[in-house]
Design a protein that fits this description.
By secondary structure, the chain is of the alpha/beta class. The chain has 12 helices and 18 strands. This is Amidohydrolase family protein.
């Protein structure tokens, strides 16, 4: 039996009869991949292709602020996880498994990236392992995925030293090459507990980043006082080198375990230096406090981390699910509080990562998601199929089915 090919992505010029979060019924006019107008009863005569929204809820395209596309086993047979409990156990297990199995970062990152688009995500920041065994092989695969989907998925790539910067000679040189080859952001990992010398590690990371004129996104799993010490050193360098607004601290578990006075002092510095925090809202470890971050003006946004890889069986390309998990972790129940969780995977994430022209306003890139839900809170909790996904002004998914990209 001949299998019917999915329809190709097509531009749309007008979406009629949709509802925005405040309940208003509006139309959305699109031109050259951007929102040209948003309002009631927009003119139809100039529209070449019209989509009837049928009263669906209109949302902006979602933003995945922290994932690892290169690691995923999405679509592969189930990986049986028997790895040890330590961070180093997971790192070594993954390296050996990827080499032994022939895991292909290009094929796998494309599979998961397409699933993100299908579920309404149009901007992604992904960390990619830069490893002295694999060299730039994983980066090459993800660069190919970015190129394949460049018209419908805006992707930032973080060159990430999964084994740390100092422990494996040649890592710094590989990071240099990765940034020169097209990575957008320099990654780093636990300068004290993995590298063993936070001063030397941070100095080298900032030196590499500044040499290439790139921002930094550091994984900071270090707990309590150790993490606070490392965070303080990092903030010293942000201030000294004028890198305000160019650094993200991912995870930052220490901020969820410190005494309030010490925590708040760090939050004040984070806010003043415009250093953003990323949380995946894990259930089993401390997390940066959402309310205190908002009180001090610290940007806190969300992401999945790994999805179906050797580290974890969890994760999903549905950012409405991640918003729900963030809301659950922080005890958000009111509808207006659930909206804060959605901000973590939409506007706040776009701002923190530096994705431009985002949102539901004229001039923004036309990245739109239609769902059958009464309200934003309902959409987060029910996570209905995506009736329509538009990216860069093109229909890329309809009724939960990805078009031919």
């Amino acid at each position: 039996m001949t299998k019917t090919a999915p329809p190709a992505a097509t531009p749309v010029s007008l979406i009629t009869n949709v509802r925005v979060a405040d309940g208003r019924h509006v139309d959305v006019a699109i031109a050259d991949g951007r929102i040209a107008a948003l309002g009631a009863a927009l003119p139809r005569q100039d529209a070449v292709r019209i989509e009837d929204g049928a009263g669906a809820l209109l949302l902006p395209g979602f933003v995945e602020g922290h994932t690892h596309l290169d690691k995923t086993n999405w679509g592969l047979p189930w990986y049986r996880n028997e790895v040890g409990a330590r961070l180093t156990d997971r790192i070594e297990n993954e390296r050996h498994w990827r080499a032994r199995s022939g895991h292909d970062a290009g094929t796998q990152s494309l599979a998961l990236a397409r699933a993100f688009v299908q579920m309404g995500t149009t901007r992604v920041r992904t960390h990619v392992d830069i490893d002295t065994d694999a060299g730039l092989r994983h980066l090459d695969g993800v660069l190919a995925t970015r190129d394949t989907l460049r018209d419908v998925l805006e992707m930032q790539i973080v060159a990430f030293p999964q084994s740390g910067l100092l422990g494996r000679p040649g890592t710094a040189e590989l990071l240099d090459r990765a940034l020169a080859a097209g990575a957008d952001v320099l990654g780093a990992l636990d300068p004290a507990l993995i590298d063993g010398d936070p001063v030397k590690s941070l100095d080298l990371s900032f030196e590499i980043a500044q040499r290439h004129g790139k921002p930094i996104d550091i994984h900071l799993h270090e707990p309590g006082e150790v993490g606070a010490f490392t965070l303080g050193l990092l903030l010293d360098r942000v201030a000294a080198l004028g890198m305000q607004g160019q650094v993200v601290v991912s995870h930052a578990f220490c901020l969820g375990a410190l005494p309030e006075r010490e925590r708040d002092a760090l939050l004040e510095r984070l806010a003043a230096l415009r250093v953003a925090l990323l949380t995946t809202a894990p259930a089993a470890v401390p997390v940066p406090p959402l309310a205190a971050c908002r009180e001090h003006g610290v940007t806190l946004f969300g992401g999945n981390d790994g999805i179906r890889d050797t580290w974890t069986p969890y994760g999903s390309p549905d950012m409405l699910e991640r918003a729900m998990l963030i809301a659950m972790r922080y005890g958000l129940r009111r509808d207006d509080d659930l909206a804060l969780a959605f901000d973590c995977v939409s506007s706040v994430a776009a701002h923190a990562c530096g994705f431009a022209d985002y949102g539901l306003q004229p001039g923004a890139r036309a990245d739109l998601v239609l769902v059958d839900a009464d309200t934003l809170a309902h959409a987060i909790v029910a996570r209905p199929p995506r009736r329509l996904v538009v990216s860069n002004g093109r229909v890329v998914a309809r009724d939960g089915v990805l078009v031919d990209l």
